[in-house]
Amino acid sequence: MSSFKIAVLPGDGIGSDVTNESLKALSAVAAAIPTLHFQFDEFSVGAGEFLKRGNPLPEETFGQFPNYDAILLGAMGLPGVRWPDGKEMTPQIDLRERLDLYCGLRPIKTYHPNDTPLKSQRPIDFVLIRESTEGLFAARHGSADLNSDSATDSMRITRHASVRLFHSAFKLARTRRKKVTLIDKANVLPSMAYFRTIFNEIAKEYPDVETEANYVDAAALFLVRRPWDFDVMVTENMFGDILSDLAAGLVGGMGMAPSADLGDKYAVFQPSHGTAPDIAGKGIANPVAMILSAAMMLDWLPGDDAKRGGQILHRAVAEVLADPANRTPDVGGTMKTHDLGDKIAQAVRA
Ligand code: ATP
User: Fold this and answer.
1) How many C-beta atoms surround the C-beta of residue 15 within 10 A?
2) Residue whose CA is closest, atom 9 of ligand 1?
3) Which of 14, 53, 253, 341 has the greatest number of C-beta atoms within 10 Å?
């Protein structure tokens, strides 16, 4: 018997629409595997919660997370809702830092050739790993005098964070096509030369894994010209932030891009997209990224039941998406969020 407690944080905008569809899919998985059980407990977070009670990530909610096996998060943020000093609220980034979720996994995969804007029909299947606790994002804790003549943000790279990040990349590559590409800017930034030195050091422990290093500007070009050559890509926080949106664009957009933020103790599973205010409330949000994030949660949870559940859910998504008619408007289809979610849940049951 495998029983898991999942903290569910639907958040704002399309977050709750897509979260509902992922819970539908997970319930179908639990129904298919009698020894697998989930308890879902919902918590209010995000800009809506800030408007109600003054904090987008209440401390009493944060304090509950150690009682859960995993966190499933929709999306947080609403246009115009900011801290009194005008700063944007970024509770999802706070979560990564506070729970030490250093390994941001962003799988990028085509499920049908129609989904890519590229002319080539070659399948795309790689994972971008984004370091999620430091890098250039570490500068967000600083401040700038908006009336002065200059402002500076620093990139923070530590040995501790880099070593564990690279081990995650190499271990993942061993389960895939055994290739890791480091993305950096080692030719210009000293912090990135340091990052590359540590990468080369860790690579020696994985002689069976092929390695290469690309400067981030070249990586942007290669992603568009020959994305099928990548297997596992690993990079610092900001480069990963930018390249993961580019990568999502290669396979149909943000609605097709799941993610997992993993630490050694905690993990948060959420789609790569935000709250999509332009389509919120219309019932047309693409639930695929969120459902695939739920499948990644099953891959990560311990035990054979969860692993089998992950396989079933990945297979169900692939089966449904093999028919290009099964698409929401963002990927050129006409389906509604809940209809696509129903199809995937049905495929799980089948
Ligand atoms: P954030 O800053 O939180 O990332 P954003 O508005 O910059 O938010 P998204 O919310 O990811 O970015 O939206 C970017 C674009 O992608 C929008 O046009 C949005 O409608 C579209 N989009 C994002 N996610 C989905 C989805 N699941 N289904 C359909 N369209 C989506």
Assistant:
1) 28
2) 274
3) 14
Question: Which domain covers residue 326, as residue numbers?
Answer: 1-103+258-350
**CA distance linking residue 15 with residue 8, whole number of Å:** 11
Q: Quick check: 273 and 254 in contact, CB under 8 A? A: yes
255 Cα: distance to centroid of ligand 1 (angstroms): 8
pLDDT in tens, 170-199: 999 999 999 999 999 999 999 999 999 999
174 and 279 in a single domain? The answer is: no
pLDDT, one tens digit per residue, over 144-162 is: 888 999 999 999 999 999 9
Of 234, 250, 266, the last residue of a domain is 250
Q: Is the CB of 275 under 6 A from ligand 1?
A: yes
Ligand 1 binding pocket includes 290 (Cβ within 6 Å): no
pTM value > 0.90: yes
CA distance 76 to 58: 13
